[in-house]
Amino acid sequence: MQYKKFKDINISRLGMGNMRLPERDGHIDVETARAIIDRAVEGGVNYFDTAWMYHSFESQKFLGETMKKYPRDSFYLATKFHNGFQIDHKTMFEEQLKQLQTDYVDFYLLHGVGDTSGPRYINEGAVDYFLEQQQKGRIRYLGFSAHASTEYLAKFASHHKWDFAQIQLNYFDWLFKTAAEEYKILEERDIPIVVMEPVRGGRLASLTPEADAPLREAHPEWSIASWAFRFVRSLPQVQVVLSGMSSMDQINDNLLTFSDDTLFTEKDREILFEAARKFEGQVQVPCTSCRYCCDGCPSQINIPEWLALYNRYKLEGEWIIKRFAPEVKSEGKPEQCIQCGACSGMCPQSIDIPSFMTGLAEKM
Question: Do 88 and 14 lie in a common domain?
Answer without folding.
Answer: yes
